[in-house]
Design goal:
The protein has 194 residues and is an all-alpha fold. The chain has a two-stranded antiparallel sheet with strand order 1-2. α4 runs antiparallel to α5. The termini are far apart.
C-alpha cells in the first residue's frame, strides 16, 4: 500500500496547524488508521484532525458555489418578475390615459390589430432602448464579475443574446396584454370616458 506524502500545505490562517495531502491507490477511508499510527510513531503529541478526501473538499466548494448560484437565480427571477409587473402597470396606465385617443382611432376605422400593434411597438421601442443600454453596461462591467464565473466567458455572446432575447420577449408580452385590452375597446365606450 504505497503512501506518498507531500510537503506540508498551509490550509488556513493558523500557524500551529499543518496539512498533508496523501495520494493513494486504495480507498482513502482505509488509510486513516495507518496514518494515525504512523504519526503516533513519529510524535505521540501530534493530533490528526479533519481527515477529508479531496472529493469531500471539492464537493463542499461546489456546494457553496451552487448555493450562491441558486440565490443569484432567485434574485434575478424576482427582479424579472418585478420588472414585468412594472412594465405591465406602466403600459396599463398609458393605455387608460389614451382611452379617448384609442376610441377616436377605432371610431375613424382603425383596425383593432393595428391599435394593439401601435401600443406594443411603442413599448417595444422603449424596451429596445433599455436593453441596448443594459447590454452596453453589462459589456463594460463584465471584467468585474470575471472571478465569479466558471466555464463561461464574461463576454459570452450567447449569454448576452439569450438574455436580450428573453427580456425583449417578456417586455413585449407585458405590453401585449394592455394592448389587447385596448384593441377590444368599443369606440363608443372609449369616447364616453372622456
Amino acid at each position: 500500500m504505497p503512501i506518498f506524502a507531500s510537503r506540508p500545505v498551509n490550509m488556513g490562517p493558523r500557524l500551529d496547524a499543518m496539512s498533508y495531502v496523501i495520494r493513494t491507490t486504495v480507498a482513502p477511508g482505509a488509510l486513516t488508521e495507518p496514518i494515525r499510527r504512523a504519526i503516533g510513531e513519529v510524535d505521540r503529541n501530534l493530533a490528526l484532525a479533519q481527515v477529508r478526501t479531496l472529493q469531500d473538499i471539492l464537493d463542499r466548494a461546489a456546494a457553496q458555489m451552487a448555493f450562491t448560484m441558486v440565490l443569484l437565480a432567485i434574485a434575478a427571477s424576482v427582479a424579472l418578475l418585478l420588472g414585468v409587473i412594472g412594465i405591465y402597470g406602466a403600459m396599463s396606465y398609458i393605455v387608460s390615459q389614451r382611452t379617448g385617443e384609442i376610441g377616436v382611432r377605432l371610431a375613424l376605422g382603425a383596425e383593432p390589430g393595428s391599435v394593439a400593434r401601435m401600443i406594443v411597438r411603442q413599448g417595444g421601442l422603449v424596451a429596445f432602448a433599455g436593453i441596448t443600454v443594459g447590454l452596453a453596461t453589462a459589456f463594460a462591467g463584465s471584467r468585474l464579475i470575471r472571478s465569479l464565473l466558471y466555464g463561461v466567458s464574461p463576454r459570452d455572446p450567447g449569454v448576452f443574446a439569450g438574455t436580450a432575447l428573453l427580456l425583449l420577449v417578456v417586455v413585449l408580452l407585458a405590453c401585449w396584454l394592455p394592448a389587447r385590452r385596448a384593441a377590444r375597446l368599443s369606440p363608443l365606450d372609449a369616447l364616453r370616458t372622456e
